[in-house]
Structure formats: structure tokens, C-alpha cells
Specification:
By secondary structure, the protein is α+β, with helices and mostly antiparallel strands. Helix content is 37%, strand content 25%. The protein has helices at residues 3-13, 28-38, 60-80, 112-115, 145-151, 190-203, 205-217; strands spanning 20-23, 44-49, 52-57, 85-86, 91-94, 99-102, 105-108, 131-136, 155-160, 165-172, 175-178.
Length: 218
């Protein structure tokens, strides 16, 4: 076992919720060893960008946002009759590009039929997720955008927990730019999504999701 992987495993074991660890000079094999070491540990996200390793631990608020956003997408797709496949926090990685990232959650919509039932994703052959969701307490996901751009992820939603705000970004060339709404679910805007998340905190998630379903029927 590479020493760096063992050291990182020990460091992560003592990291509090919603904290971050950054290391430079990590090679690809060490990154793979870290992924293996942390595979069974929940609430940890690992990003690798050409030697830099970023590890972030999640929090209860982070997970609440993530789960609710997942459920909103499912509810909207169900009401609209839109096919959707959710792949959670799957790892996208490329040794050729020396980059890798784990989303908080992600969805295939335009490519849902193609990816249906797949248990393994190969970024060299398969399309990237249509939507990647990143839940931030600060702005950690900013460093992940170039990684997602490398893989050609067309849309990223950045959810800012402290500000109760959602920023929808779409890939233009090799960079992400703000978008007024989702390309794949045009009725969903950042403002609408944030409003339903806020409502879930006040009324409960069941009531808020019922409201999402009624809203999507209009």
C-alpha cells in the first residue's frame, strides 16, 4: 500500500464534517490507492487534477440538499414523462488527462436510454452525465469545473447551502457559463430549485415534493 494512501486514510478519519484537505504532488497510482482506501467511507468526495488531490467531507445539511435535489429531479421527470437515470456520486476519471472527480449526484437524461442498467462507466467510450450536481458550503466545487469540462459534462448545478442559492452552469467551449435554466429540464431554474429546497426546510420534504409534483403538472 503506498504510504500516501495510508496517511490520507488516517487523516480523513479525523476530519470533521464539512472540511477539506488538499495535497500536491500526488501521482496517478497514489490517487487510485486513495480511492480504494476511501471507497467504503461515506460522506467523502475526492477530486484529482494533474497532481493535486482535494478531499472534502460532507455534512448533514449537505446531504439534505443533495437528497432533496435528487428527489426534485425524479419528481419533475416523472410528471413530465421524461426518462432519467441517476448515477449518484459516481467517479469520472481519465489517466490520459490525469483528472478525476466524484459528483455529489448526477443524472443522465438525454442519454438515459443508452445508460440504462449500466453498472460501470468508461469515460473513453460512454457519454458524461448530462447534469452534475455539486453542493457547496463554501465554493469548493469551483476547482472541479475544469475537471468536468475535460469530460464534457454539459451542465453543472452548484448549490450553495449557506446562501440558499443554486447556480446553473452550461459548458461553452472549454468553460462553464451561467444559464437561466436547465438545458435538459427547461422549467427548472436555479431560483425555482432553491425555492423548493427552502420550502422543504419549513414544511418538510414530503410536503415540498408534493408541491413540486403539482407545480410540474401546470
Amino acid at each position: 500500500m503506498p504510504t500516501v494512501a495510508a496517511d490520507i486514510r488516517e487523516s480523513v478519519a479525523h476530519m470533521p464534517a464539512a472540511s477539506a484537505l488538499a495535497l500536491d504532488g500526488v501521482d496517478w497510482d497514489e490517487y487510485q490507492a486513495v480511492l480504494e482506501e476511501l471507497e467504503s467511507r461515506p460522506g467523502v468526495r475526492v477530486t484529482y487534477d494533474r497532481g493535486r488531490l482535494d478531499i472534502v467531507t460532507t455534512s448533514a445539511g449537505h446531504e439534505r440538499w443533495k437528497e432533496f435535489v435528487q428527489n426534485v429531479v425524479r419528481a419533475v421527470c416523472q410528471e413530465l414523462g421524461v426518462d432519467m437515470e441517476s448515477y449518484g456520486g459516481m467517479t469520472q476519471q481519465s489517466r490520459r488527462h490525469m483528472r478525476g472527480a466524484e459528483a455529489d449526484t448526477c443524472f443522465y437524461i438525454a442519454n438515459a436510454e443508452r445508460m440504462r442498467g449500466r453498472d460501470a462507466i468508461d469515460v473513453t467510450r460512454d457519454p458524461p452525465p448530462d447534469i452534475v450536481v455539486e453542493v457547496d458550503k463554501a465554493s469548493q466545487s469551483r476547482r472541479k469545473l475544469p475537471v468536468y469540462a475535460t469530460f464534457g459534462v454539459p451542465e453543472v448545478w452548484r448549490c450553495f447551502v449557506r446562501k440558499n442559492r443554486v447556480e446553473m452552469l452550461q459548458l461553452r467551449g472549454d468553460a462553464y457559463v451561467p444559464a437561466p435554466s436547465s438545458r435538459f429540464l427547461p422549467m427548472l431554474t436555479g431560483e425555482v430549485l432553491a425555492r423548493f429546497v427552502e420550502r422543504s426546510g419549513k414544511e418538510g420534504q414530503t410536503a415540498a415534493l408534493n408541491a413540486v409534483g403539482e407545480w410540474a403538472k401546470r
